[in-house]
Design goal:
Blueprint (H helix, E strand, L loop, with lengths): L4 E5 L3 H13 L3 E5 L2 H10 L4 E5 L1 E2 L2 E2 H11 L4 E6 L4 H9 L4 E4 L4 H33 L8 H14 L5 E4 L6 H11 L7 E5 L5 H9 L15 H4 L4 E5 L6 H13 L1 E2 L8 E2 L3 E6 L3 H6 L5 H7 L3 E3 L10 H16 L5 E2 L1 H9 L5 H15 L4 E2 L21 H19 L3 H8 L3 H11 L4
Helix pairs in contact: 2-3, 6-7, 13-15, 16-17
Amino acid sequence: MKPRSVLIVEDEVIIRRTLREFLSGEGYEAVEAGTAAVALGHVRQRDFHVAICDVRLPDGDGIQLCRRLQQMNPDIAVLVITAYATVENAVEAFKAGAYDYLVKPVLFDDLLHKLERLFKFRELFVENQALRRELSRLEKFDELIGTSRALKEVQDQIRKVAVTNCTVLLEGETGTGKEVFARAIHRQGPKGREKFLAVHCGTQPVELLETQLFGHQQPAASTEPSQLGILQHAGTGTVFLDEVSSLPIATQGKLLRAIEFQEILPSGGSEPIRVQARIIASTTKELQQEVTDGRFQEDLFYRLVGVKIRIPPLRERLDDIPELLEFFLTRHTTALGKRVTGVTSETMRLLMSARWKGNVRQLDNALERAVIMCDGTQIEPKDLPPDLLGVGELIPDTDDLRSALRHYEKLHISRVLRQWPDKREAAKRLRLGLSSLYRKIEDLGLDI
């Protein structure tokens, strides 16, 4: 642990050296300075936790030195030494930013007491700041529900890219919540309080989509107002382009220019307009294949895939289902005015074993339907959508331990193999030898 460092600024040699020897004996790292100039030289070269400054110095005023020291190092705490303890001196010292003051002759017990109190205050302050940062981090991620390994890996990537203003591409199956992740990136970023505007690129005619994105300028003689595009309207915020692969080729070229040169040309306009919005795009398709098939511009592809984040499907984050369930139940029971407090164990087994082809969106819709259909306080399998019963393989409700363990083993190994297709890595995760994993696959009849 780094020792606590103290800078002693005192022109009287005996007092200065006595204080240094005493503090060194108490475990502090003490450094002497006889003038304000020497003190400033020390602070330019290293950081100190505390400075003890006399009010009167040969080349300056201790109160002014207090201000200078804190300008150079805002974390330094200053104790002012004065020969006369007056209200005026104390007020002036505190106005300059001093933590406390000492009266000559300095009493060692008083000095130690004030130093210990000062460092305890610093520790509490640092801890408070750390807790505030952690709380802020948690609040910004409160929309990402779950604690699975797959989700934590995505959160780690988001933290790294969010603090920049780079373009991001989110890849994932339909229903995985790509817009939720896009909003998390936006909120974690430097412009998190600015606008977040979303556009679905595959649901509108080309002319309407381009007007929505880039705007429209009416001729000078027209009485109709011009229309701002979303890229301009977002300001320094974020524009989320959902299903960017659906953009027509011509529109892709205009988007590329907006990303590369930060300018757009509104429909009907003759002068380009500067834009500053951050672009986050998403796709359910393999963009490389779209490029190969001639449906997506190669230049735009390389602009987008520079920072690419894969959003895992729900089947790769089954451990998050209980937390997602609690979140969605709270939302739907509040909206519908129902008193549903949870699900039965049989329902939970069904939810944990379903394949969830529609991912989180399917789970959300299934639970909304279940809350509506539920007559009691616990959701039963009959309350779930009928097609869900055939989606997965229900964990057996049996007293036969051997049969239940075999069934669970099959489900668990299947899930790990889906998440980690490399057999060596999967075997490592399962804490099995590679040959043992292959025997399990054959014995359980797993379809890999």
